[in-house]
Design brief:
Layout: H1 2-17, H2 35-49
Length: 50
């Protein structure tokens, strides 16, 4: 879990250097954050692959 937190902090720093607001949320993924988030990510990945 500590490596995930460290990765989240690093990713947030990179985004902030682009003058964008960003927070990183680390979860154990046992429960969805929102019912649209997981679906949207799957759609996005599918579009990228196509």
């Amino acid at each position: 879990m500590e490596k995930a937190k460290q990765l989240g902090r690093m990713a947030a720093r990179v985004v902030k250097t682009l003058n964008k607001r960003c927070i990183a949320v680390v979860t154990d993924a046992n429960q969805p954050l929102d019912k649209t988030i997981e679906t949207w990510l799957e759609i996005e990945e599918t579009i990228e692959l196509l």
